[in-house]
Amino acid sequence: MKIHLFLLAILPFMISCTKPEKIDLSKLKLDEPLINLIEFNDTLLVGVETVEYPFCLFAEVEKSQKYTFDGIDLNEHKIIFQINSEKLRTDSISRFGGAHIDLERIKNGNELKNALRNFKAESNIYGVRIAIEDPNLKSEILKKIELKYGKGTKNPNTDNGLYWNVKEENKYIFFAPDYDRLIILNSTNLSKTCYWDIFNGLIDFGGCDNEKYIKELIKNSTKPEDVQNKPVVKIDRNWHLNTLIVGKSTEEDFLKSPINKNFERIEEINGSSGEMNQIMYQDEYHDFYFYFKVNSKDLENKKANSMKSYSLNDLKKVEISFENGLKAGMKFEDALKILDKKTIVKTIKNEGELRFANYIIIKNASYEVSLVFDENLFLSGIFLK
After folding, report:
1. Global pTM?
2. Facing residues of 48 across strands?
3. Is the pLDDT score of 313 beyond 80?
4. Which domain of life does this protein belong to (predicted)?
5. What is residue 230's three-state secondary structure?
6. How many Cβ atoms are within 10 Å of 194's Cβ, its own excluded?
């Protein structure tokens, strides 16, 4: 009897010391419910991260102890799950060249459910991305992949990239060591001939029709010629928009301006600290955005919040004029002839399959202007910060 009592006494301690079962990312079918793959005790961020890939929802898990890859511990590495979201299949973000991050800290199941609903996203994942910076870890993971799937196909767009089209498992595997990423996707509902993201460029699996593929990626976008009620925008020689001056005009000034139509107010919160990053006004229909710095704990004090930037992602969706002589759709070389050479910081003309935007960057004492040109080098957007 005493022995049985002793065992019963220590049983709770044995259970409490049991390590939680880890998830081997290499064995996922990539159709699992997201909620089965995460712990809310970890730092979970859900939202848009267009630096990597603009056409899906991201769920980032930071510094978790939960994941391995074929026996390799992934402690402290960022894990990103990809979730299909038809709402994000637009061209406005990708055309602007990426660099938009809007991630929200998720702390429980209800918050996750609401986030997925807001983005009209599915509840199951279709891909995973692993951030790998350590060269030794990259080598170990590559050996594991090659042992299972053989030598990969050389990615023609990067120096060291490889990829595998594993048809029997409905998987695409992209090893992108130049960009510290391993990307594994369920190919069931993806194109069987093409793949593109910023880190891999355009991959042709055979018979890829690039133009048709891109149109499918951005199928929810509004054609510029179909846009109605275009805002009237005038950019003066100092890059101020209508009567609004970056660094001086306030949120209240914007609200009183005639330009303030059809804008939605968004409060952007830092996912880690919970602090307010900025206030954004967005008119997604016209690809038009204003950003305000929060200068007061009272978020409703609109006289205190100062305008810090604006962006027009598609100049075809507004009626725009420039005091300095620029025109929407102007060629890259012609724009250079008009601009003050002393203020140009750099020009960027991305070439090859990895290109995602072309820029002329202009700098003055108070702000920086990026003129964005499309793949044909025609002026298509402007961003001032």
Report:
1. 0.63
2. 102
3. yes
4. Bacteria
5. coil
6. 20
